[in-house]
User: Fold this.
Amino acid sequence: MNFNEMAKRLEMEEEEFKEIIRLFLDTTHGDLTKLQSAIEEMDYEKVAKTAHSIKGASANLGFSKIYELAKDIEMVARERNLKRAMEFSFLIKDNLKAINDELY
Assistant:
């Protein structure tokens, strides 16, 4: 993952971009906690809404894998397939870990 290149696409300095990534990681971890609670509560609307939030943030920063997974969660929530939503949420968590590992 080339943070410098990603930062340039957004017309930012690399360190500024890395700070935004740190905020993204914190926020998205919180969103994943909300998502997992919504799944356990079988709150399909909250699952879709939380996934939509993750999708938007990841798209803005250029994290396409997370964007696609969040998009998939939105879709399966509307289909009422929360088992798949949980599986996708674990994959997002894995992607966040990879970003965090690369960052630090």
Q: What stands out?
A: The mean pLDDT is 96. The chain is about 85% helix and 0% strand.
